[in-house]
Write a structure and sequence with these properties.
496 residues, alpha/beta, L-2-Hydroxyisocaproate Dehydrogenase, Chain A, domain 2, six-stranded parallel sheet, three-stranded antiparallel sheet, 13 helices, 14 strands, binds nicotinamide-adenine-dinucleotide, binds (2S)-2-hydroxybutanedioic acid
């Protein structure tokens, strides 16, 4: 990770970011912005245009390296509101501003995000920003880390008209995200990453225990999201009301020698009860399921939502992003490629051989020997076990999972905000194969899955075609196990 010195990107403490943002905006041509900065980074390097050019995400702080210049974005952006209506400036600021493009938010808009809530650990001002002035300026992206931030920030959000507010341009920090299982190994670092998102106004943390301390701790970070804690089933409904995204990493992790399916007996019940609460309190939210076995917990969730009459297949996601993150990393290492450039679609499911990286579809185009294909495929499929064994009984992947889950949250929020160019691999209800659920690349939109990308499955190699056939029996069994569990539970409830 490249470190940027303070002076390099801040131009000194007095740099007026809002002014620079206005200059940047005025540098656009008749409202058509210049191409997004080639320095824009991404927590979501895999979020691309279908054509394959990189599309930057607004979470810059984890960007490993400068990506290739993306295709020019010809979207017409709105004129900044003279009264200071929230605008999010992104993109092609000169190098100094790559580290800190500006966001301005009207005081009205900012205050809207400051509604006082019980147990609110957030500050009463905009996390130390100038909430009382008519316009707040703050550095976007890594700038939340402060002027001395050493992470290289390249991603900067762009002006995105938020769907909720019709023709008005709304502040970016306007989404509410709940994490269920927030005090756990994944939940804690995930909470931190979401707290750093410029798109989030409220971060609601729920767990059955130990969540107060996590919330108090996170709330000291001077970023916009207000942190709220909720403990135990009695507070779950309150946690969920009005949220835009619910992320569920609640449940037990593997120990060495276990399969993900060995977690079914405990985690199926946990997911069931949490989804019932989601159905009752925020049926419109995007639901991101991390709890294993994902191949079964997502079908369980679908059945529970159906039983409650609120199932929307476009908004229920099994988080398989970590498989993509790993595939990208391992391929980049093997082929000596820039990490940020590599994008490997991973399809199927999220366990053992059901994890199928389509190496032949790697972007940029790269060739593999048969031996490399075999070795990389196996490593990606066993990467979870690699971590479980290395942790030797202390759990499974938590940090890389939090990174992957934060990327998926960010992609979802960008899609909600109207970004027309968001793609992720995820395990969803699908007609791509004969299986009712299947992980593949999907295009995300403000209402969830906009389309499922079928092209990755076309023209695959013989190795991939065989692996695809081979995974189906296991994936089918896991799906059916989940559905059967949900039906039995319903039957049991009905007979009481
Ligand atoms: N999808 C993936 O790629 C992926 C990757 C890594 C881990 N996982 C899975 O994520 C899950 C969590 O892993 P972890 O390492 O964070 O485990 P963990 O044990 O560290 O944390 C789990 C948290 O869930 C909480 N919890 C338990 N029951 C709950 C309930 N009913 N309501 C709310 N919270 C509850 C626990 O109190 C704990 O804080 C595991 O099932 C693991 O297998 C999935
Ligand atoms: O391997 C596990 O049990 C956790 C997770 O599914 C992973 O892929 O790391």
């Amino acid at each position: 990770m490249e470190a940027a010195g303070e002076d390099e990107f801040m131009g000194g403490a007095e740099l007026d970011l809002a002014q620079l943002a206005r200059e940047e905006y005025s540098a656009t041509n008749n409202g058509v912005p210049r191409p997004l900065s080639p320095r824009l980074p991404s927590l979501s390097p895999a979020c691309k245009r279908e054509g394959g050019s990189l599309h930057p995400a607004p979470l810059p702080y984890l960007s490993p390296k400068t990506p290739d210049p993306p295709a020019p974005n010809q979207e017409k952006e709105k004129e900044p509101d003279a009264r200071g209506a929230a605008i999010l400036i992104c993109s092609t600021l000169p190098t100094k501003l790559d580290m800190a493009s500006a966001v301005t938010i009207s005081s009205v808009s900012a205050q809207a995000a400051l509604v006082s809530k019980p147990r609110n650990h957030g500050s009463t001002s905009f996390s130390g920003l100038k909430a009382s002035s008519s316009s707040i300026s703050f550095e976007s992206g890594t700038s939340f880390l402060g002027k001395t931030a050493s992470l290289r920030a390249s991603g900067t959000p762009r002006i995105v008209p938020k769907a909720k507010s019709g023709s008005q341009i709304s502040p970016q920090a306007s989404y509410k995200v709940a994490v269920l299982g927030a005090a756990g190994g994944i939940g804690q670092p995930l909470g931190l990453l979401i707290k750093m998102s410029p798109l989030v106004s409220e971060l609601r943390l729920y767990d059955i225990a130990n969540v107060k301390g996590v919330a108090a701790d996170l709330s000291h970070c001077n970023t916009p999201a207000q942190v709220m804690d909720f403990t135990g089933p009695a507070e779950l409904a309150e946690c969920l009301k009005g949220v835009d995204v619910v992320v569920i990493p609640a449940g037990v992790p593997r120990k060495p020698g276990m399969t993900r399916d060995d977690l079914f007996n405990i985690n199926a019940g946990i997911v069931k009860s949490l989804i019932e609460a989601v159905a009752d309190n925020c049926p419109e939210a995007f639901i991101h399921i991390i709890s294993n076995p994902v191949n079964s917990t997502v079908p369980i969730a679908a059945e529970i939502l159906k039983q409650k009459g609120v199932y929307n297949p476009k908004k229920l996601f099994g988080v398989s992003t970590l498989d993509v993150v790993r595939a990208n990393t391992f391929v980049a290492q093997k082929k000596n490629l820039s990490l940020i450039d590599v994008d490997v679609p991973v399809v199927g499911g999220h366990a053992g051989i059901t994890i199928l990286p389509l190496l032949s579809k790697t972007r940029p185009s790269v060739s593999f020997t048969d031996e490399e294909t075999e070795q990389l495929t196996k490593r990606i499929q066993n990467a979870g076990t690699e971590v479980v064994e290395a942790k030797a009984g202390a759990g499974s992947a938590t940090l890389s999972m939090a990174y992957a889950a934060a990327r998926f949250v960010e992609s979802s929020l960008r899609a909600m905000a109207g970004d027309p160019d968001v793609y992720e691999c995820t395990y969803v209800q699908s007609e791509l194969t004969e299986l009712p659920f299947f992980a593949s690349r999907v295009k995300l939109g403000k209402d969830g899955v906009e389309s499922i990308i079928s092209s990755d499955l076309e023209g695959v190699t013989e190795y991939e075609a065989k692996a695809l056939e081979a995974l189906k029996a296991e994936l089918k069994a896991s799906i059916e196990k989940g559905i059967e569990f949900a039906h039995k539970q319903q039957g049991a409830a009905a007979s009481v």
